[in-house]
Amino acid sequence: MLTEDLSSNILQQHRSVDAKMLILLTIHIVCAFAGFANAAQLTPVFEWNELTFNWPDKQTEEYALRSGQYVPANNLPLGLDRWKDKLFITVPRWKNGVAATLNYVDLKSSNKTPSLIPYPDWKSNTLPVGDQQPQEGTIISTFRVSVDSCDRLWVMDTGLADIWGEGKQHSTPAILIYDLNTDKLLKRYVMQSGDLKEDSFFANIVVDVTQGNCENAFAYIPDLGGYGIVVYSLQENNSWRVKHNFFHFDPLNGDFNVGGVNFQWTDGVFGLALGRIQPNGYRKLYFHALAAIREFSVSTEILRNKTAATDPASYFAYKLEGNRGDKTQSSASDLDEKTNVIFLTQLNKDSVACWNVDKPLNPQNLGTVAHDNQALVFTNDLKIDAERNLWILSDRMPAFLYRGLKPNEINYRIFKVTIDDAIMGTPCAR
């Protein structure tokens, strides 16, 4: 009897423990999913195992493959922006064999795996041979582009090819501006020697302009390697370099684990987002280093004035907005003026986040827009178009750089979601 009573008691205790464990497990699962319960449903637009291009003819493509001018595995999409029926996609020349660095796809096409069309044409995307000098319209390698409200495309050309290999500087970094209605090159501005540092690397460009005042445009170009921002005035056709401690990377947040790849980066200021126009006619420029988790800001009133921008006394005009939280390193950001919400990529979290700038920046006010540990591995770029759609590009870049991608898997994806759907149910909604 004693044995039976003891066994019965132990069984009851075991069942009680199991019940408690089940309750705790259920609570844990519910809480875990609650963080993503309001995540938006992204619309898949395009996907590729490897990129293909719209070659002039089959013979040209076959020659490019044989000669090594086109190595499909070496073409990785990185930046994007939209203008009407064109979705621009950049393919930096990380390695040899990039067919074209600036391209677009036709959004009217029903093909979910379209071939990229070089912009403005194949000739502009052809690398110089040997010691040939690039022509005026040649684009060597671009990471990010920016469509402005005056129907222009701004391209930041690094001038550097085979970046991950031997590296060849074909030309000085330059800004190229295109008229999107005619596809004609309006201007090529070559950066001045004072804009450049030994470790300079220009991989982003943001344009500050308003319709009806198109000539009074400014471009802000972060230098992630030289830890500065270069400001370019279209009207003055002049540029100046700005320095600040906030442009540097955070040594405590340079460790990344993305898609099963561990690596350490020291990238400085990279993500930029322009706020609404203030009563004084200027905006806030929100910015952050890639290897960091804090967000900062400065008024464009400082940046657009060369004297003020380069005056050490302007140091205290830069403000700390807040801390996004652990593992929130971001490669790109953009702001929706209607809602005052910034969207940010989240590299270590396979996700996209949002922050309403009318609220203090902290982990509690950082919302999750979308999360997917397969489809959103390395959300490299995002942009908001004129119709308030958020476009997101993921490309598994760490695997591409450090171990190679599998050509039988989907490696590159582009999604979109409306801004209102993206923030619904998140702390970013009012």
From TrEMBL:
Origin: domain of life: Eukaryota
Compartments in which it is found: Secreted
Key words, A-Z: Membrane, Secreted, Signal, Transmembrane, Transmembrane helix
GO CC term (a single one): extracellular region
Annotated transmembrane regions: 21-40
Gene3D superfamilies associated with the record: TolB, C-terminal domain
Keyword Membrane part of the UniProt annotation: yes
InterPro entries assigned: 6-blade_b-propeller_TolB-like, MRJP/yellow-related
Family: Belongs to the major royal jelly protein family.
PANTHER family to which the protein is assigned, alphabetical: PROTEIN YELLOW-RELATED, RH54244P
Name of the protein in its database record: Protein yellow
Originating organism: Henosepilachna vigintioctopunctata
